[in-house]
Structure formats: C-alpha cells, structure tokens
Amino acid sequence: MSDPMRTPEDVLATMAAQRVAGWPDWHPEDYCHRCGGRNASWCVDSDRFNAAMGQPAEHRWNGIVCPGCFVELHEAATGLTASWRLVPDTPFRHTAVRRGGNRE
Ligand SMILES: [Zn+2]
C-alpha cells in the first residue's frame, strides 16, 4: 500500500485523478472507493457480493469497497445481520512480529 498517512478525504479527492491516469501511484484496491479508508486484499462469494452491491453492471465505487463498507452495504440491502469470518487465503505466509514491533 502507498502512503498510510493519507486521510480518507484526501484519498477520495485524489482517487479520480489516479483512475484517469491509470493508477500510477496506487493499486486501485489499496483504498476503499466508498469511504477512502485503507483496504485489504479480500473476497467473498459473488452471490453475497452482488446481494450487497447489486448486479455487476450496477456496482458503484468501481466495485471496490473495504470489508467494513461491504458489511454495511450487505446489511442495508438484505436486512440480515451476520457475523463474518475472516480467514487468511492460501498461500499464507506467517510474518512474526518481534518484541519492539520489528517484523522478521
Ligand atoms: Zn470503506
């Protein structure tokens, strides 16, 4: 991810220019296109995604939202409140954190 100190407001203000320019400084999924917060690499079954976002032609925010926004949209669209399971996808590389916060 790029500069972690950017505010969501700054990200959203800059996002359109990045998109027009072909994402020269960011990966398009580094940030949520709805709230401007940092985004992780994640996925969910397409039926759940489409339940939250509508059919693919209807996807707002370039179809890129963070997990928190996805859950909010899913609840609003379906009326269902659920607990979500977050698990690492394979291959998963464990990165140990040493005392003092340094990664190995
Ligand atoms: Zn978001």
Helical fraction equals 25-40%
Radius of gyration: 16 Å
Q: How many DSSP-defined strands? A: 0
Mean pLDDT: 85
Provide the descriptors you would attach to this structure in a database record:
about 100 residues, binds zinc ion, mainly alpha
Tell me what the structure shows.
The protein is mainly alpha-helical. It has helices at 8-20, 46-53, 67-78. It has a domain at 8-78. Helix content is 32%, strand content 0%. 11% of the residues are buried. Residues 32, 34-35, 37, 65-66, 68-69 line the site of zinc ion (ZN).
Question: Brief description of this entry?
Answer:
The protein is mostly helical and 104 residues long. It has a domain of 71 residues. The chain has three helices and no strands.
Topology:
Blueprint: H1 8-20, H2 46-53, H3 67-78
Helix pairs in contact: 2-3
Bound molecules: zinc ion.
The site of zinc ion (ZN) has 8 residues, from helix 3.
